[in-house]
Amino acid sequence: MYSEVDIRRLTWQSRRGMLELDLLFVPFVQDAFRDLPEEDKDRFVKLLACEDQDLFLWLMEREIPVDPDLHKIVRIILDRVQPS
Question: Which residues form the signal peptide (predicted)?
Answer without folding.
Answer: none
